[in-house]
């Protein structure tokens, strides 16, 4: 079966609120398939960055990429590599960087922490203290641990939780469009 293009995936996510099952009478036969979790999460992460507002001067200068750091090599980092080709965030191309451990000192604008237990998650988070970084966690409890956005799968839907306090600690705010799609918002 043919893979959905990145813009069709993004459209499905925005129209259907992240429903992993993209089967609807409104979709073409090609689009009627189930997105993989990695495809859906990658599209979400790109849109999270797109609808985040950074403070003046926090994003790279013109012609420099926005970096999305991913903890460890995984299917999600591979999907982000694939989907980010040609994708612009606030006029910047996207570069995906794989971080092998929490102590890696790569400057990122977005940090996606995957498959981490609490202690490891907090070590990644500590490296970002005082930086304007959007921290995204791959499971619901990461919102309580300090992620600004945390994925929350529920009833075959991939949803997300927004932790505005964590975002504000990194100097970030979210557009109202992103907040409307959140399953829940904590302050």
Broad shape = globular
Q: What is the CA-based Rg, rounded?
A: 16 Å
**Whole-number total of structural domains:** 1
Predict the CATH topology: Rossmann fold
Portion of residues in helices?
25-40%
Oligomer category: single chain
- CATH first level: Alpha Beta
Structure classification? alpha/beta
Unreliable stretches covering 5 or more consecutive residues: 1-25
Count of alpha/pi helices = 7
Give the tally of β-strands.
10
How big a fraction of the residues is strand?
Answer: 15-25%
CATH architecture: 3-Layer(aba) Sandwich
Compact overview of the structure:
The chain is an alpha/beta fold and 187 residues long. The chain has a single domain (37-186), classed as Response regulator (Rossmann fold).
Give a verbal description of the structure.
This protein is an alpha/beta fold and 187 residues long. The chain has one domain: Rossmann fold (3-Layer(aba) Sandwich), CATH 3.40.50.2300. Helix content is 32%, strand content 24%. It has helices at 6-16, 37-50, 75-84, 118-126, 142-145, 164-169, 176-181, and strands at 52-53, 66-71, 88-89, 92-99, 110-113, 134-137, 149-154, 157-163, 173-174, 184-186. α5 links the parallel β6 and β7 (149-154).
């Amino acid at each position: 079966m043919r893979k959905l293009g990145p813009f069709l995936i993004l459209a499905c996510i925005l129209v259907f609120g992240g429903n992993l099952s993209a089967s609807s009478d409104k979709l073409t036969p090609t689009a009627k398939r189930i997105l993989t979790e990695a495809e859906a999460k990658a599209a979400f992460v790109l849109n999270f960055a797109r609808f985040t507002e950074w403070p003046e001067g926090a994003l790279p200068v013109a012609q420099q990429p926005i970096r999305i750091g991913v903890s460890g090599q995984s299917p999600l980092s591979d999907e982000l590599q694939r989907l980010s080709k040609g994708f612009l965030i606030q006029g910047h191309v996207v570069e995906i960087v794989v971080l092998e451990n929490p102590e890696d000192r790569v400057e990122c604008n977005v940090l996606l922490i995957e498959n981490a237990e609490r202690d490891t998650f907090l070590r990644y988070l500590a490296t970002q203290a005082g930086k304007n970084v959007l921290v995204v966690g791959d499971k619901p409890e990461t919102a309580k641990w300090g992620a600004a956005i945390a994925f929350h799968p529920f009833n075959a839907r991939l949803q997300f939780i927004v932790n505005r306090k964590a975002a504000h600690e990194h100097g970030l705010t979210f557009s109202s469009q992103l907040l409307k799609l959140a399953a829940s918002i904590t302050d």
